[in-house]
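Could you help me review a protein record that somebody else here produced? My question to you is simply how this chain folds and whether the tokens agree. Thanks in advance; the entry in question is below:
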Amino acid sequence: MRRLLRSLIYALTTAIGLLAFLFPVVTAGQTANAPLLLALVVGLSFVALLFEVQGDAVNAKLVALLGILTAMNAALRFAEVAIPGPGGFSPIFFLIIVTGYVYGGRFGFLLGALTLLVSALITGGVGPWLPYQMLVAGWVGLSSPLLRPLTRCLHIEGRRPEVALLALFGLGWGLLYGALLNLSSWTFIVGPGAPMPATLRETIRLYGAFYVTTSLVWDLARGLGNVALALAFGAPTLRVLRRFHKRFSYTYRLQEA
């Protein structure tokens, strides 16, 4: 039952997020829902965190690890603000991707969402954009385990091609992160109250032109940065995370014996 409730919480958070991203498009740029969305996302994230910490000892250890990784990633975001990189490059997505890949989608979602929340509090980056950033960063970690069946099918787990696959995944999310965030504000930037296109095809065409003109180069720098970090640090980071994961699993099996 606890597992079902946890899954429902993450599903509800994702559903609210999808509606929130579509809302400005449907209402031609109205973003007054941002404070309510922030409260919902933060509240549901902490409810999910409470569910994760309940139960067996291995969950408590994973939550402790989540706190450490969140602090590390928030510090990287602070360094990014202090010394800006090229374009939209950010070092935080690499850790979100690999931890979600190793520890599962729920862990990845919490790391992504909490990293953006904590780093925003540290750097003063709290604003109407924050809940959208938290959601998309959470989705990055939530979707990372989707690569596992592919790595098993190709028999590349623990080998160099696995790192290359994570690098390509980071490239895709580097572009998708910016594309999704633009959905929350592009109609507002174009002009609040502007008439919306009559068809979905026309809406997609206009948004595609807007994205290529304003964000593609910026997001490409983020994606290529994810590739560079994955290729440089992917293999050792995966080894460390898997070592801790095996240790937690071994401790849990001893408790069950």
The chain has a mean pLDDT of 81. Residues 38 and 130 are 7 Å apart (CA to CA).
